[in-house]
């Protein structure tokens, strides 16, 4: 199957998903959208009110800010892929719980495999925790680290910057500095054959994360 077909299959499954209780009292599943061959993939936390109404990720105020951030580094939504760790809106926009994240994990794994991005940008601590479960976002935001065969850049969630104005300039600065640098480094590593799809054995290897946290 092509990347487009794989992503469409995931989207269809999300539209009827009942793996956890999040699907109740929601209007739409929100599988994600964007370029199936994107070099950069953005992973947020979960859909909000506007996302649930439209079935699209990051279309509310946080999405408008994300669009501005993308433009600041010469990207737009058509060039990247945007999704979340959970595909239905948590009630009242609360944080997703581990059981919900686990229920959606396989969807996200398949999306990453289909797109095979060179750089993954996590937006918020819940998507960061997929790759760096013991890290604190306050310590590694704006940094690019090698994990699962890709460069992962951890960022504060755009919504956090809207709720805490002291974070807004930090998010802007992180985007402008880290994403172009990560793309350049990804190109260098790819040319050396050091960037690629993760090995399946790493999923069950509890000793792997320390070696993966090599900052460039």
Provide structural commentary:
With 216 residues, the chain is α/β, with parallel strands linked by helices. It has one domain: Uracil-DNA glycosylase-like domain (Uracil-DNA Glycosylase, subunit E, 3-Layer(aba) Sandwich). The chain has helices at residues 3-15, 49-54, 61-72, 98-115, 125-131, 137-140, 158-163, 168-191, 208-212; strands at residues 33-34, 40-44, 81-84, 119-123, 143-147, 150-155. It has a six-stranded mixed β-sheet with strand order 1-3-2-4-6-5, sandwiched between helices. β5 (143-147) and β6 form a beta hairpin. Mean pLDDT is 91; it is low at 199-216.
Helix content: 40-55%
Measure the end-to-end span: 34 Å
Spell out the helices and strands N to C: HEEHHEHEHHEEHHH
Number of strands: 6
**What count of domains describes the coordinates?**
1
The structural class is alpha/beta
What is the radius of gyration computed over CA atoms, rounded to a whole number of angstroms? 16 Å
Report the CATH architecture: 3-Layer(aba) Sandwich
CATH class: Alpha Beta
3D shape: globular
Strand line-up of the largest beta sheet: 1-3-2-4-6-5
Number of helices: 9
What's the average pLDDT? Answer: 91
Biggest sheet features: 6 strands, mixed
Which residues form runs of ≥5 with pLDDT under 50? Answer: 199-216
What oligomerization state is this entry in? single chain
Report the CATH topology name.
Answer: Uracil-DNA Glycosylase, subunit E
Binned strand content = 5-15%
CATH superfamily: Uracil-DNA glycosylase-like domain
């Amino acid at each position: 199957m092509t990347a487009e077909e794989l992503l469409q299959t995931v989207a269809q499954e999300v539209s009827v998903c009942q793996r956890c209780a999040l699907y109740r009292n929601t209007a739409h599943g929100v599988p994600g959208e964007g370029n199936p061959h994107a070099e950069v993939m953005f992973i947020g936390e979960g859909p909000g009110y506007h996302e649930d109404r439209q079935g699209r990720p990051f279309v509310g105020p946080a999405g408008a800010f994300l669009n501005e951030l993308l433009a600041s580094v010469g990207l737009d939504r058509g060039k990247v892929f945007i999704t979340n760790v959970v595909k239905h809106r948590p009630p009242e926009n609360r944080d997703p719980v581990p059981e919900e994240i686990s229920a959606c994990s396989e969807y996200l794994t398949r999306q990453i495999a289909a797109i095979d991005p060179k750089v993954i940008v996590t937006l918020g601590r819940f998507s960061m925790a997929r790759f760096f479960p013991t890290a604190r976002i306050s310590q590694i935001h704006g940094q690019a680290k090698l994990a699962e065969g890709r460069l992962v850049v951890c960022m504060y969630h755009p919504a956090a910057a809207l709720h805490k104005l002291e974070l807004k300039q930090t998010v802007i600065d992180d985007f402008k500095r880290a994403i172009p640098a990560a793309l350049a480094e990804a190109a260098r590593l790819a040319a050396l054959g050091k960037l690629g799809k993760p090995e399946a054995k790493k999923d069950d290897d509890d000793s792997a994360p320390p070696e993966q946290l090599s900052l460039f």
